[in-house]
User: Fold this.
Amino acid sequence: MRRRSFLKMSLGGAIGAVALRPNSAAAWQSRAPADSYAALVDLTRCIGCRKCEQACQQEHDLPLPMKSFEDLTVLDNQRRPDAARFTVINRYHSGRVNPEGQLVADYVKVQCMHCQDPACASACITGALSKTAHGAVHYDVNKCIGCRYCMVACPFEIPAYEYHDPLTPRVMKCTFCEQRLREKQLPPACATICPTEAITFGKRSALLKLARRRLKEHPGRYIQQIYGENEVGGTSWLYLSAVPFSKLGFIPLPNKPLPKLTETLQHSLFSYLWSPALLFTLLSGLFFFNRRKQLQQPENSAGHAGGDV
Ligand code: SF4
Ligand code: SF4
Ligand code: SF4
Assistant:
């Protein structure tokens, strides 16, 4: 059977199970805190220096990379966060020119988005991932059973796994430096170190106001969109850009939070005592088709004013 047919059948079975379930799962409700902390990344200010990567590595005592943080040749390739690095900077050549008419590169910081309604937390059957009041999506290694449903569910493909550790592997992702904030009342290490103030930390509502003010005061500098304001129900990391986000590796995503579907499916399957292995297959199928659908959409559903580059 072809992979596509198999996934279709799996998904059909899952949806059927949901539909036939006698008492469907309770109506899904957002668990987003009222006004938690967030970070605004102004990509027009980022110079790709990688200081944020270094600060993150030091703050969390992560392994040192093979090439030093001063070596900018790593920007020649697109990278993803992994078990040894919670954040990376990627470089894009979108054809943007500066006021002097010179071609300029765009740099994008990538890390866990700390979604308002995190799909990873909804997919986690043990509660190892949870949205905290201050905004971070917290990972509790003591509750994690290593099923990796979170990795399948995350629309940003962020959680990584310590495959190299056979005894005590962990799911790894940006912590939003929640310990630093809680114990020392300090912003995240990456935000503190940034030499161009490309990262602003604060309450989400205040950052959205700041972002809107920048868009209004400098319409020629930015496209008229705040990525993360609405995507998948909103995220704690917000972005401003000079070029459409689709040109900078941002995944076009719907505004609707994904946990609603994930939770309904999970609760229905567990009410029938379906096995975790089958659930993993079904969730994989669900997100495979969801991702295909997203990638087939030409532009972000939130739309762009565009043109002001
Ligand atoms: S980006 Fe992924 S891992 Fe991070 S909170 Fe959102 S769903 Fe979870
Ligand atoms: S918020 Fe903290 S953990 Fe996340 S990328 Fe920044 S420094 Fe790293
Ligand atoms: S430290 Fe600031 S300017 Fe440097 S790469 Fe990170 S976000 Fe960009």
